[in-house]
Amino acid sequence: MISKILFPLAVTLPFYLLLQIFHLVYGRLTHPLRHIAGPRNPSFILGNLKKMTDDTQLTEKWRNEFGRTFKFNGLFSISHFHTTDVKALTRILAHSSIYQRFTADGDNTRRLSGDSLIVVETGDHKRQNPAFGGAQIRLLTETFIQNAERLRDTLASQVAQEKGAAGHVMGKAGESLIVLSLILQTGKPNKLNDAFTNLLHSPNAELYAGFRIVQSLFPLLWLLPVPGTKASETARAAVFDVVNQIVSERKNIEGSELEKALSEQRDLLSVMIKANVSADRPESQRLSDAEVIAQIPGLLLAGHERPTMDELNSFPYLESVVRETLRVHAPVAFVNRMAIEDNVLPLSQPYIDTKGKSHDSLT
């Protein structure tokens, strides 16, 4: 019985791999970006990604050398172009139905978070977005301030214990403390924290992430138990188990009692549920239980929108420092997008290709 399964697989797998390699090579030779200038490709398998991971300022160095628009190589030397051209970015953001998230990134995140706000596109994204509007975020003011004070005290304590390790302490304490408290105040964060620490911050975290990306590029590999699969499944199960229980408990509270209970809570999950069950929200625009649950692991992975508080805006120097810090050291260095149909991307500043020709657009 086993031989009947393994024999066709053994025959088919080499042909599948050869076909994928052919697509990679042919795509590279005919790629529309092949004549765009860019850094040398140091590795066929890793491309420029290893250097980009090791040096977060590398893209800035490349901009100084090649201009606002240049090409770099991703996994298996797949060509990508990097641009900071304002006209191009404006078009990309204004036409999100055409320029969608890179497929591998979306598949990778979806396996951990489900169909959350950071994964879905177009109509589904528009329907989920109101649950995170300005009014809902404003309700979290008190929680943000309380958790910021807790984070300050925790960091001060750990920096005192680990002299000279302030940066390490910030990364270690910040995420586990403030993120989980902001999302859900349940008294049950340890299970979630342990699962995501193992997935995202263990010594093998980068290796696990690399395997997940390769699986997204070659979907057949999802059938294989590659390293990190168990960690991903454990993290996803832990999050969905805890959040599903919380959502179920709060759904059992009916009518005005639910409204009262949610009004007393200032964690992000309660604010989101309150927005979702609001009487003035049409049924067609409400999130399903699965979508509500999916937001939590999505937010654990992506972080949170920091609201602009009126009281904090009265401190212009603080605001300037925060804005400049976020500009120079952005939480998200870049976002991958891919055109799902033929399109012309205009540029405000032309680029010179490897043949010396000037171009004011990308096709």
TrEMBL record:
UniProt entry keywords in alphabetical sequence: Heme, Iron, Membrane, Metal-binding, Monooxygenase, Oxidoreductase, Transmembrane, Transmembrane helix
Pathway assignment: Secondary metabolite biosynthesis; terpenoid biosynthesis
One Gene Ontology cellular component: membrane
UniProt keyword Mitochondrion, yes or no: no
Required co-factors: heme
Record Pfam families: p450
Subcellular location(s) per record: Membrane
SUPFAM superfamilies for this protein: Cytochrome P450 (SSF48264)
GO MF assignments: heme binding; iron ion binding; monooxygenase activity; oxidoreductase activity, acting on paired donors, with incorporation or reduction of molecular oxygen
Domain of life of the organism encoding this protein: Eukaryota
Family of this protein: Belongs to the cytochrome P450 family.
Protein name per UniProt: Cytochrome P450
Organism of derivation: Mycena maculata
